[in-house]
């Protein structure tokens, strides 16, 4: 297929998607704080998250986020609505290696910007491992819509899954990662912790799609 359109002409696309695939064996020093979240208003559904992937998670629509946690997360990343600011802080596009994420039946997700230095066993509300951006019809960045908190599988030694906001992480279905999405910048009818958001645009024509064109 033809080369995908640039998300911004000034992007420095660092090819970190391949690093994600190998990151389960790379445990960086924990340098960005500990989990200080509070439990969600509604308990997490009783589901075995350790054997659950994004395709068959229990419905998350009734699981809410504590207002103080939402405020802390938004205050920490508000400036990252400007992608140049996110890049200057260490986040890099994974478009060229992982592509854009979508599910034709469940909704869109978008393009991930990853900070590789955060890929370890520590999670912190104010330091998401990945920022998730919705793409406009022409392939440019439309806006920051979600955080994704990530822990490499091999970095996590506990028998229980990682947790943040009082919610268990779950296995990504194909990558060696524990993941938790939080739709704090764009409302999601399926819940703030759902993986897919029907309000997010599906991947634009010409942009590589994860699981189809890449990796």
Key terms:
disordered N terminus, 215 residues, seven-stranded antiparallel sheet
Distance between the termini: 14 Å
Radius of gyration: 16 Å
Number of strands: 9
Unreliable runs, pLDDT <50, ≥5 residues?
Answer: 1-58
Number of domains: 1
Protein structure class: alpha+beta
Quick one: biggest sheet?
7 strands, antiparallel
Order of helices and strands: HHHEEEEEEEEE
Shape: globular
Helix percentage = 10-25%
Can I get a quick summary?
The chain has 215 residues and is an alpha+beta fold.
Summarize the structure in words.
This protein is of the alpha+beta class and 215 residues long. It has one domain. It has three helices and nine strands; from the N terminus they run H-H-H-E-E-E-E-E-E-E-E-E. Strands 1, 2, 3, 4, 5, 8 and 9 form a seven-stranded antiparallel sheet that branches. It has a two-stranded antiparallel sheet with strand order 6-7. The longest helix has 11 residues. It is globular and about 40 Å long. The two termini are 14 Å apart. The N terminus is likely disordered.
């Amino acid at each position: 297929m033809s080369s995908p359109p640039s998300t911004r002409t000034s992007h420095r696309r660092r090819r970190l998607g391949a690093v994600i695939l190998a990151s389960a064996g790379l445990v960086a020093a924990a340098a960005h704080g500990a989990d200080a979240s509070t439990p969600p208003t509604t308990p997490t559904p009783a589901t075995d998250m350790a054997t659950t992937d994004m395709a068959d998670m229990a419905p998350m629509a009734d699981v809410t986020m504590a207002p103080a946690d939402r405020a802390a997360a938004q205050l920490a990343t508000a400036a990252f609505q400007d992608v140049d600011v996110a890049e200057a802080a260490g986040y890099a596009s994974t478009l060229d290696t992982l592509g854009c994420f979508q599910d034709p039946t469940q909704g869109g997700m978008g393009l991930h910007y990853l900070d590789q230095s955060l890929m370890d066993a520590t999670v912190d509300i104010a330091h998401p491992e990945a920022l998730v951006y919705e793409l406009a019809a022409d392939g440019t960045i439309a806006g920051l819509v979600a955080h994704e908190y990530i822990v490499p599988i091999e970095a996590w030694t506990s028998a229980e899954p990682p947790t943040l906001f009082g919610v268990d992480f779950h296995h990504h279905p194909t990558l060696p990662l524990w993941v938790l999405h939080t739709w704090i910048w764009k409302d999601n009818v399926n819940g703030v912790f759902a993986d897919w958001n029907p309000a997010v645009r599906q991947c634009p024509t010409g942009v590589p799609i994860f699981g189809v064109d890449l990796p």
